[in-house]
Design a protein that fits this description.
NAD(P)-bd_dom_sf, binds nicotinamide-adenine-dinucleotide, EC 1.1.1.47, Rossmann fold, alpha/beta, single chain, SDR_fam, about 15% strand
């Protein structure tokens, strides 16, 4: 679709072209795609023309998602993936390239929630597991996604952090630390590969209605209390996060690199 530009003399008079489908021709890999934000991202990206590879441990759920996407005319592949296992991540990326011939985008989304206890009451094994999934998982993903993207001239990576990656929160300190770590890795790797054509950005979701959210806050009262932290006084839907990731994967963000987009209704600005 072509939109006529306004005639203001300081504006470039060239018509603005809006691509009908912003991910046409692109192959996108999503980790932790068996539920929540990852599954919503797969649906959104297929609707925008992408070939999508969904990775997670629950292969039955992924296969149902792939059936749904392909029945709607999309191209999708399910791969078994444990992001804590380097060989599993390497194979998932390799399977992606073998099936679709390229990798243009990735959403590093898989994560575990925090234990829900003050630090002295946390279980060290669980805390180590959170760092393994949330930080090592993003590290392994970047390590194998970037070379695959470089092989076809570049790409765009979205690391899923959290509003808890830009502020502190009590009783989930290991989760918060892991999400700050994701942002540090995002910014540093963006500096390493921006010049080669791979952009790396992060999104910082606020409260979003998913399995993780329901497990963290199992009662309506607890959910209402947390929703009130957002100036918009509600929680997001998974597709709200998928839309932000879509922007970062599309050419519309071609000059955006190493940044964090908070998609939290303004929660991080302050709780007043
Ligand atoms: N829901 C929220 O309120 C919220 C807020 C801020 C950030 N986030 C972030 O959004 C992302 C998606 O979470 P969600 O809310 O959709 O929850 P979710 O639990 O539905 O999704 C997380 C996914 O990661 C997968 N996963 C966990 N360990 C894995 C492993 N070792 N290998 C592969 N996959 C693994 C899970 O199976 C699950 O499908 C996470 O990074 C989460 O930290 C969510």
């Amino acid at each position: 679709m072509t939109v006529a530009s306004t005639a203001h003399p300081n504006h470039n008079p060239a018509p603005v072209t809006i691509e009908a489908r912003r991910l046409d021709g692109k192959t996108i890999f999503i980790t932790g795609a068996s539920s929540g934000i990852g599954a919503a991202a797969a649906r959104r990206f297929v609707a925008e023309g992408a070939d999508v590879v969904v990775g997670a441990r629950r292969i039955d759920r992924l296969e149902s998602l792939v059936d749904e996407l392909t029945s709607e005319g999309g191209n999708a592949l399910a791969v078994h993936l444990d992001v804590t296992d380097e060989a599993s991540v390497a194979k998932a990326v390799q399977d992606t390239v073998e099936r679709f011939g390229r990798l243009d985008g990735a959403v590093n989304n898989a994560a575990l929630s925090g234990a829900g206890a003050p630090i002295v009451d946390t279980d060290s094994d669980y805390v180590r597991q959170v760092f393994d999934v949330n930080l090592m998982g993003v590290y392994f993903s970047l390590k194998y996604e970037i070379p695959a993207m470089l092989a076809t001239g570049g790409g765009s990576i979205v690391n899923v952090s959290s509003v808890g990656g830009i502020i502190g929160m009590p009783n989930i300190s290991e989760y918060i630390a892991s999400k700050w770590g994701v942002i540090g890795m995002t910014k540093s790797v963006a500096l390493e590969y921006g010049g080669a054509g791979v952009r790396v950005n992060a999104i910082a979701p606020g409260s979003t209605k998913t399995d993780m959210y329901d497990a963290w806050l199992p009662t309506p009262e607890a959910q209402a209390k947390v929703a009130a932290y957002s100036p918009m006084n509600q929680i997001a839907l998974p597709d709200d996060m998928a839309r932000v990731a879509l922007f970062l994967l599309s050419e519309e963000s071609r000059w955006t690199n190493g940044t964090v987009i908070a998609a939290d209704g303004g929660q991080h600005v302050g709780c007043f």
